[in-house]
Structure formats: C-alpha cells, structure tokens
Design a protein that fits this description.
There is one protein chain. This protein is of the alpha+beta class and 82 residues long. The protein has a single domain, classed as YefM-like domain (YefM-like fold). Helices cover 50% and strands 18% of the residues. It has a three-stranded mixed beta sheet. The termini are far apart.
Length: 82
C-alpha cells in the first residue's frame, strides 16, 4: 500500500486520485496512520461484502424469531436482555 504524509496527500491530490484506482493509499499525520483513501469500486465491494455478511447472519431467521419493535424496546427497557 502506498503511504503519503498528510501534506503530500494535499499537494499531490490529483496523483493520489490516480493511484487509488490501483491500490489504497494510506495517509500519515505526525507519524501516525490516520486514514486510507480507496477507489469508489473498492468501497462498493466492501459495502457489498458487509451486506452479504449481514444477510448470512439472518439466513436462518423465521417468523418465530421476529418481534414487534415496541415489544422489543419495552423488554429491553425492563431489563429482559440484561
């Protein structure tokens, strides 16, 4: 992964935008990594993977597992899930 300090990222912003099409770019400020810039495509892929994970966690849910929102929050407030 390419690393740039914050000043380089600012002064070479156009070049950084070109670079992120190939690989994420790490931004370092005061010697500490503070951000990663990535392409829109990479971001969309990450979001799709997160959604697939969420869907897989709920793949075996049936109607008996569902509760009304008000009921759930009332139970939560009453300490049922403590």
């Amino acid at each position: 992964m390419l690393s740039l300090n914050a000043n380089e990222a600012k002064t070479k912003f156009g070049t950084m935008l070109i670079n992120v099409q190939n690989e994420p770019v790490e931004i370092i400020k005061n010697g500490t990594p503070v951000a990663v810039v990535l392409s829109l495509r990479e971001y969309q892929l990450m979001e799709e993977l997160k959604m697939e994970l969420v869907k897989s966690r709920f793949s075996d849910v049936d109607d008996s597992d569902l509760v009304d929102g008000d009921t759930f929050f009332n139970d939560l407030d009453s300490g049922k899930y403590d």
